[in-house]
Amino acid sequence: MADERWIIVGLGNPGPEYAGNRHNAGAMVLALLAERMGARFKAHRTRNDIVEGRLAGQPVTLARPHSYMNLSGGPVNALLGFYKVPPERVVVIHDELDISFGAVRLKLGGGDNGHNGLRSITSALGTRDYYRVRFGIGRPPGRMDAAAFVLKDFSAAERKELPFAIDRCADATEALLTKGLIEAQNQFHTDPA
Predict the structure, then answer these.
(1) Considering the domain boundaries, does residue 46 fall inside one?
(2) Is residue 60 part of a domain?
(3) 23 noted as active-site residue
(4) 82, 127, 130, 156 - which has most CB atoms within 10 Å?
């Protein structure tokens, strides 16, 4: 019997050399959510680091895949099998190029918009119908390749704002769990001042 558990996945690449990259925004938000729960990540047999507990009163498993971003689907699918949770109880937090830095957007389903982590998860789950909390990182400057841009650390100016943006994204994730998609969108779909 499946419980009402949510699985919240923060996307990123493993290893200290990637920790500050724009592509790791999802993992940064997940770390703050774990901190709010007062819990530490531990390795799990599903090839994820996980935290189990309650967030905003809801039973959750926070998960950080051990794989690189473009192979996230396998570990995420393993979690769904382990917990017997359907895809519509999954929230994936990830970086998003098409949203200005610091803005947060929430949605259910949709395409992967060139995001290899989402592509891998959609392929492994066999559906696009999972929630996404999108952390805006903005477009690369000039002619910089998007793939190079996402693997660079946030700029000095962005780093000053980053804690606030991560906090806002964590708040949006909690609102999604407690208030539902529409109300969370209404609350967070305004660009930060």
Answers:
(1) yes
(2) yes
(3) yes
(4) 130
